[in-house]
Predict the 3D structure of the following.
Amino acid sequence: MSFHIQVNDQPFDADPRAGQCLRTYLRERGWFGVKKGCDAGDCGACTVHVDGEPVHSCLYPAVRAEGRSVTTVEGLASPEGELHPVQQKFLDAQGFQCGFCTAGFLMTTAALEAEKGTAHDDGKLDDLPRAFKGNICRCTGYRAIKDAVCGVKHTERPCAGKAVGKSLGAPAGPQVVTGTARYTFDIEVPGLLHMKLLRSPHPHARILAIDTAAALRVPGVHAVLTHEDAPERLYSSARHEHPTEDPDDTRVLDTTVRYVGQRVAAVVADSEQAAEEGCRRIEVTYEELPHVIDPEAAMLPSAPALHGDKGPDARIARAENNVAGEVHGEIGDVEEGFAEADVIYEETFQTQRVQHASLETHGCVAYFEPKEDGTGERLTVRSSTQTPFLTRRALCALYDLPEDEVRVIAGRVGGGFGGKQEMLTEDIVTLAALKLRRPVKLEYTRAEQFYGATTRHPFKVAIKMGARQDGTLTAFHFRVVSNTGAYGNHGPAVMFHSVGESMAVYRAPHKKVDAYSVYTNCVPAGAFRGYGLGQVTFAVESVMDELARRLDLDPLAFREKNIIGPGEHMLSPIGEEEDLHIASYGLDQCLSVVRTAMAEDTSAEQAPEGWLIGQGTGMAMIATGPPGGHYADARVSLLQGGTYDIAVGTAEFGNGTTTVHKQITAGALNTTEDRIAIRQSDTDVVRHDTGAFGSAGTVVAGKAVLLAAAALAERLQTFAARHTGVARHLCKIGAEAIDCAGRVVTLKELYEAAHAAGAEEELAADGHWGGSPRSVAFNAQWFRIAVDPGTGEIRILRSVHAADAGKVMNPMQCRGQVEGGVAQALGATLFETVRVDERGEVTTAAFRRYRLPQYADIPRTEVHFMETTDAIGPLGAKSMSESPFNPVAPAFANALRDATGIRFTELPVTRDRVWLALNQYAQATAGSPALGA
């Protein structure tokens, strides 16, 4: 066929493959700004213009573009490089975080801007919920996107040395808005092979035989990998600094499958199509085994033992009872405490599976590159990971490789939320690359992300709390059962963390906990924003609200009477963590913000007549980093041109650490951010970095950067003093030069002098931080809502969030983290749920069946930062990436209780559940006809 197409004013005539979509056609020609997010037209990340009209290119057949003009985000700017007005507005407002969805929003907005005032203008720019119904953002909470569309500018350009505390724009912002930021798969690798995985159709089965002959006959197939090709070594897909935190219960390819979707074999071929066909032709003989999907049933003696074949070296608490990990502890005597109580409240709460839904799916590319010393090749793995250094360590251990033979790189990562604190693709891709000595790529589909990655842990929390009539808590007892799925990655650690700060934040003389992390034949759970705290906080804060009602006390005053105070020890039955301190305290301020919002609020006037009105609060405490050590190395250097370079290991995925690291360095060296370059998330860059999880990007890696930058400032002053013969204390560092008592030495001149003297090492300094001691951060959330009793519809009238983040390094960026956390938590509260059937098979393996929050679903949250300065964090900062998530669900549930009189104990509180509960409540309390009938 004869095919012609214009892409960003460039002609292309290569024929598309049969059935090829426009997205893959464009990416194969280097237009990497067109993203893959869903393959189903749900997320909008692939939006391009075809003859000026926005289309989802994943649904648009490439052949339909014949003779048409296609514009991608790379083509929006002028040929001279001047940004399109929409690109500039998104840059000025920082209408993005990870940026993976940004091209889609830009292309949609630009098309609507072009229509404005024409016959095609249907008013969508004045109705953004309608305009963006085809675009999804998982990071921002949408407020920043609205501000960008409306032309609101938030970014600042501070003067030298004054960057900390200012709203500095993301360094990668220009690349994000022009589509030139490079994510995991935005590279061209010559000779690339593609991998596809055959997955189990059974929840529990033993593999008796695998026949690969037909698959190997498929043209283009190079290899079929089975358990016979994989190492027998057990490991965990979870990535922690100390691997012993997780049970070793996983193999690269196993002889037993334990959930529907577990990988059975891998096919490597010239194309994805050939690899998929190879998977279809593999014949597997299974012996089906009994399965169990309920964690309570899994602990019974009659249940099948999923990992009964594992020995003590696997570190499974009780494999015979499917208990991956457990903790039991008591402070005081809870029975005595309940005897002292005037009021006792007891209830069981349940939270559901939630998908991380980062728009960039899991995946990696492995290839070989020459060693610098010319002695051969080494393996490079480019991965969408939060933990490049820990992944390298795991790969080397798995395949007996020395660390200098393996390099792991993370490009810009398209969202993480804890889901990429796993090794889910790198192990199998490395196996193929080592076998074939060819570059190999594996990129999950959106469906695989649901049934082949991980989810948030579903929890069942049975909680009993007691209090005296004056509001003093006397005792509480938690029984927590966490469903870790088929494998224990993060299971024991999430369970352990869930009953830490959630119990320690309230004082009571008697506390008891019994908690279990339990195996089932379901998709594995893993790390997720909040790391277990959100699930238990939902229960604790709901019970606190009920106790206050029964005691006829103001819920805020009841909390204030019982919360931990500054300088107090944080006690829970799991034991005191000696390195955890209240190094700054803003919880009282958080609750004061909520009290003020309640007193001044008039939002109830916005509710439609006849709707039920309610308000509710939730609060939470979280450690600013994981226990047991979280390490970061950093190096800051003066470069030849008189600018600076930061080398740090942590990954950037919208968490904003790149910006903060530059701000810290600019402050320490009294310079401006444009004079600082940064290299990161590459195992070649620094000695070690545990990873970008546990909110450690600022408080751990940032601390290492601060130590390095401060040390370099001293070295520069010392060298300048020696170079000029002026006393060191008279040498003052400026943005581009050092003033030595009136003699100005440019930084470029200083570098040249050091180079001439062979003293370049004096112009670089290292910093290291081990993540201990740790502090705590506090958050409080308040909602006022309205509920339609006839339909169950809920409207959020007002949302207020108070955050104790210590010294706020970047207000714009930190606000975005809070808003994104609230938005994600609202999704988990209102409708998100990964559903499984009676076999444990995921039935919601697409965005349109899963229901992510869209623009129209999320209210504008008012964010307030407390006035605190932490004694441990760098320059007084604390973490604020995970913690905003935790108080949202209980605050919403408490508002719903206030409005309806019904205590909802299971998430999500979907509209149909609310309507049904209102009908049942009305009939039970008054014998009246159903509400809305």
Observations:
- The first strand starts at residue 5 and ends at 7.
- The radius of gyration is 28 Å.
- Confidence is low (pLDDT under 50) at residues 928-933.
